[in-house]
TrEMBL record:
Positions of the Digeranylgeranylglycerophospholipid reductase catalytic domain: 176-224
Official protein name in the record: Geranylgeranyl reductase family
UniProt cross-references to SUPFAM superfamilies, sorted A to Z: FAD/NAD(P)-binding domain
GO molecular function, one term: oxidoreductase activity, acting on the CH-CH group of donors, NAD or NADP as acceptor
The organism's taxonomic lineage, starting at the top: Bacteria, Bacillati, Bacillota, Clostridia, Neomoorellales
Amino acid sequence: MREYDVIVVGAGPAGSTAARIAANVGLKVLIVERKRRPGLPVQCAEYVPALIDLEVEIPEKAVAQRVEGMEALFPDGTTFTVRAPGYLLRREVFDATLAQQAVEAGAELWTDACALALAEDEVIVRKEGRILTVKTRVVVGADGPRSIVARAVGYRPHRLAVAYQVEVEVPEPLRVTRVYFDPTFFGGYAWVFPKGSTANVGVGVTGGGVDGRRPDLHGLLGKFLVFLGWEKRRIIRRTGGFIPVNGPYWRCCSGRVILCGDAGGFTHPVTGAGILFAVQSGELAGRAMVRYFCEATPLSIYDEEWRKFLGPPLLRAVRHRRRMEAVWTEDAQALTSLLREVWQL
Ligand SMILES: Cc1cc2nc3c(=O)[nH]c(=O)nc-3n(C[C@H](O)[C@H](O)[C@H](O)COP(=O)(O)OP(=O)(O)OC[C@H]3O[C@@H](n4cnc5c(N)ncnc54)[C@H](O)[C@@H]3O)c2cc1C
C-alpha cells in the first residue's frame, strides 16, 4: 500500500501552498486533485489584493491586469472610491503555478483523482476508474467550500453564498474594480472586475431578499447586465460557485486532520474574498505540519496560529455579516449606511 506523511486533498491555492511548505523540508506529500488541471475551470472573479506579494511571487503570465482602486456604488446613488491595489489574476495560471511549485518542492500530484472518504489513517481515492486506499499520517482538507474532508471528520457544512458570473468583452479597458449594491443582492453584491479586454461580471448573494425567496441568480445577473448596458456583449465564459460566509471553524484541526482555505471557512464573510486567506491559511497549515513532524509540536498549533494571524479581521467580519443580514432593508438610504458601516467604506 502507498504511504505518505501528508495527503493534501485539493490543489487550489490553499492545498498547493500547504503541500509546498511540507514538501520543502523533505516530508512525503501527495496532493489529490479531482480536476484534470488545477484551477480549470475557473470559479472565481480573480481579484487579489497586492498584499499577496508578501506570500507568493506571482508570475507575469498569471496577471491579467493590475488595479489601484475599487469603486463602490450604493443603493442611494452615491459612490465611494477607495485605494485597493491588486491584481486581476488568470486563476488557471495562478493555481497551476502554485501546484507546480509544490511539485518542484517534492510533492507528488495526482490529478483527475477524487478523494472519496477518510478512514483512520487512510484516504480512499478514485483515480482513473480505480479505487485506491492510500495511507497517511496527516490529512489536509483544502478541498474547497463543500469539503468532504471536513464532513468526514464531523464538521457541519458552511453557510454558503452563491455566485454566478460571466466574462464579457469590454470595448475599452476599465481601470478599477467596481462593486454594486442593491436591495435585491441580499447579503451580497454585484461586481465588474476588469481583465484588460474583458471583465468578470457577476453577482453573489446569500438569500432571495427580504422576502426570503430562493435567489434567482440568472435573473439577477441578467438584470445587472441590462443595467450596465452590456446585455449584448459577447460572453466568453460562465462560471459560478459557493463561498463560505460564516468565518472559519473555531477548531480547524481535528486529530490529524487540518482544514485550510475555503474548506476551513477562510473567506472574508462580508466581501467573500478568499484567495489571500487560502494562501495564508495554507502556509500556516504547512508550517504546523513541519513543526509536528520535525519538533513533535501538536498539530493543534495551527489553530493557535490562524487565530493569532487571521482571526481578528475574519471574526470581526463574521459580526458584520450577522448584523448586515439581520437588518438588511429595501430602504436605499438605510441600506447604504449599513453597507458603508460593514464594508468600512
Ligand atoms: C464566483 C466566485 C468568485 C470569487 N471571486 C473571488 C475574488 O475575486 N477574489 C477572492 O479573493 N476570492 C474570490 N472567490 C473565493 C475564492 O475563489 C476562494 O476563496 C479560493 O479559491 C479558495 O481557495 P482554496 O484553495 O481553499 O479552494 P479552491 O480554490 O476551491 O480549491 C479546492 C480544490 O479542491 C479540489 N477538490 C474538491 N473536492 C475534492 C475531492 N473530493 N478530491 C480531490 N480534489 C477535490 C477542487 O477541484 C479544487 O481544485 C470567489 C469564489 C467564487 C465562487
